[in-house]
Design goal:
The chain is an alpha/beta fold. The chain has 2 domains: about 1-250, Alpha-Beta Complex (Spore Coat Polysaccharide Biosynthesis Protein SpsA, Chain A); about 250-284, no CATH class. About 35% of the residues lie in helices and about 25% in strands. α3 runs antiparallel to α4 (about 80-90). The chain binds 1-O-phosphono-alpha-D-glucopyranose. Belongs to the UDPGP type 2 family.
């Protein structure tokens, strides 16, 4: 199976940090966001990844390319640990790039993958606003559902009711533990119109016929071509409650919290960070 990672958004929520660099390259602790997402696809058994980029996203390509000068420098200076890490990034998978030429929404961005996916029955989509952590990678969990049921599968997660308007929300019946047969879905509904609090969390395995539906769907929420609207046209879609932890990094506070949490896992950094945070708390 191939994977598609849309990375064409302008990152307005992170301005001015994203004025001249892609939001996908903002680090979460010590790695660019998009590297976590690529690593999830690879850990799920995918080795062919198409990244949908746009203007000003060149550094994403550079990040996954070889960097001969850097490797030469690290080798010459005996920095083996860094050298291994840098080389590993360019060996992760076969990564392809295509540009979305206009900001017309997530559905339109995914549509840019059509030719690359041609001939495949289904493909995975991973959005960069969420990082996941679990024993079985989130995308692998969806691939398993796709293999078992022969239909599209998307990851969902319960969110507090006051946050439903930030997400695509599903309506469905639980057919086995944690698996919903989806009857309907709506992109970013007001609380009063949300059919549930089960949110689409940015991981999908979609049958290729989705491209026909994207082509025919009219602009939806925000005047954009929405993937959620196109998915409503698929005959069967399963919602799979993700077994694992998700980290929302689509806004500044959650992004910062995730960086802190990942830094706390580092034995060398933790003691100093804890002291520093205690100091901050007593000061503010
Ligand atoms: C997109 C999808 C939405 C989904 C969300 C998850 O919205 O359109 O259905 O719930 O990702 O992060 P975005 O956050 O790109 O506006």
């Amino acid at each position: 199976m191939k994977a598609v990672i849309p990375a064409a958004g302008l990152g307005t929520r992170f301005l001015p940090a994203t004025k001249a660099q892609p939001k996908e390259m903002l680090p979460v602790f010590d790695k660019p966001t998009i590297q976590y997402v690529v690593e999830e696809a690879v850990a799920s058994g995918i080795d062919d990844i198409l990244i949908i980029t746009g203007k000003g996203k060149r550094s994403i390509e550079d990040h996954f390319d070889r960097s001969f000068e850097l490797e030469y420098f690290l080798r010459k200076n005996n920095k083996k640990e860094y050298l291994d890490e840098v080389e590993a990034i360019s060996d992760l998978a076969d990564i392809y790039f295509v540009r979305q030429k206009e900001q017309k929404g997530l559905g339109d961005a995914i549509y840019c993958a059509r030719k690359h996916i041609d001939g495949e029955e289904a493909f995975a989509v991973l959005l960069g606003d969420t990082i996941t952590s679990s024993d079985v990678p989130c995308t692998r969990q969806l691939m398993d559902i796709y293999e078992r049921y022969g239909a599209s599968a998307i990851a969902v997660e319960e969110v507090p009711r006051d946050k439903v308007e930030r997400y695509g929300i599903i309506d469905g019946r639980e057919v086995s533990e944690g698996i919903y047969s989806i009857d309907d879905m709506v992109e970013k509904p007001p609380i009063s119109e949300a059919p549930s609090n089960l949110a689409i969390m940015g991981r999908y395995v979609l049958e290729s016929e989705i491209f026909d539906h994207i082509e025919n769907v009219p602009p939806g929420f925000g005047g954009e071509i929405q993937l959620t609207d196109a998915m409503r046209e698929l005959k069967t879609v399963y919602g799979c409650v993700f077994r694992g932890k998700t980290y929302d990094i689509g806004n500044r506070v959650d992004w910062l919290k995730t960086s802190l949490e990942f830094a706390m896992r580092d034995d060398e950094i933790r003691p100093e960070l804890v002291d520093y945070m205690r100091g901050l708390i007593s000061r503010y």
